[in-house]
Amino acid sequence: MTDRQYAIGIDLGGTSIKFGLLDSDGQFLHEGKVPSYADISAEDIINQLVRVAEETKSFAHKHNYPITGIGIGSPGIIDTTGRTVLGGAENLKGWENLALAEIIETRTALPVILDNDANLMGLGELTYGAGKGCTDIIFLTIGTGIGGAIVIDGKLFGGFANRGTELGHTPLIATGERCACGATGCLEHYASTAALVRRFTALANEQGLNFNTEINGELIVRLYHESFPLAVECMNEHFYYLGRGIAGFINIFSPQRIIIGGGLSEAGDFYFEEISKVAFKHAFSTCAENTQIMRANLGNRAGTAGAASLVFQSKIFHKDKS
What phi and psi, each to the nearest 5 degrees, are found at residue 224? Predict the structure, then answer.
């Protein structure tokens, strides 16, 4: 790639839409965030997507940045052509069987390509962040749920028809509790931030503890550092469950790096040290000998950067150069 290119990257979430104009070196030239209106309707979400695309398009035109296209990271399962949201995004109302790329193209007059939001966070880290220079990585984002992306030989792996890589729904506890997805004992149900908060809250109620503030991951981490027994117990459970899940991924994929993003990843180096202890204890040593477990570099910009990167890398946008 000799000429610098420019693309709009859009990261759609259940609460907000993050967006930006990036060049092919990964530099953000413009960025912002708006509510996604995910709990209202698909039409309202689409209107917000068009709004941010038009805002970014106006900025690009003002500064003479020719836009190659728009990349969008969306929750849910995306078809293999990167054109349609098939479903699986329970936190976005009406978000299924939606020809999203065609709709946004029609309303913005720019070419559009889609992929799963966690996939694009992983692609962003691979291209511009903690995975740069690697060919094989696993990306995990730990939040309300657990999202994931797999990169094999430098390419996103989605399974047949792009229906796979639901890493958060890896079965972890065979006789465990029911997950929100309907299955039993999923990694997400035991190792997400929501699971940590749920467990801490339940035990606090049993013990008659009242903290007079919102119980969230930040509070639990702070109490952990203060050696508060309940926080230590719950964080150690979190390390165990997440570490066991990661050990499974190491045994299957033997990646160069497992990159972790999401709110808890900002807790500090201790977080990765504790997870690594569990993961490497339970993984085959030969599978794990080339693997590092590390923090994501791009923070909440990863999805936007990955969406733009999808445009730069896709042959759809460069047919005349292929």
Answer: -60, -45
Exposure string for 94-111, b = 16+ CB within 10 A, e = fewer: ebbebebbebbbeebebb
Give residue-wise pLDDT tens across range 199-216.
999 999 999 999 989 999
Report the pLDDT averaged over residues 96-120.
Answer: 95
The answer on pLDDT for 318 being more than 80 is no
Domains 6-122+301-321 and 134-296 share a fold: yes
- At 197, is the secondary structure helix, strand, or coil? helix
Residues near 65 by beta carbon (within 8 Å), at least 6 away in sequence: 6, 21, 23, 29, 59
Can you identify the CATH homologous superfamily of domain 134-296?
A: ATPase, nucleotide binding domain (3.30.420.40)
Nearest to 170 by CA among 241, 227, 111: 241
180 in Cβ contact with 166 (< 8 Å): no
CA dihedral 291, 295, 297, 301 (to 10 degrees): 120
CATH architecture of the domain 6-122+301-321 equals 2-Layer Sandwich (3.30)
Question: Which one, of 161, 160, 126, 77, lies nearest residue 255 by Cα?
Answer: 126
pLDDT of res. 60:
97
Residue 73: φ, ψ to 5° = -100, 120
Q: The tokens of 148 are what?
A: 């994931």
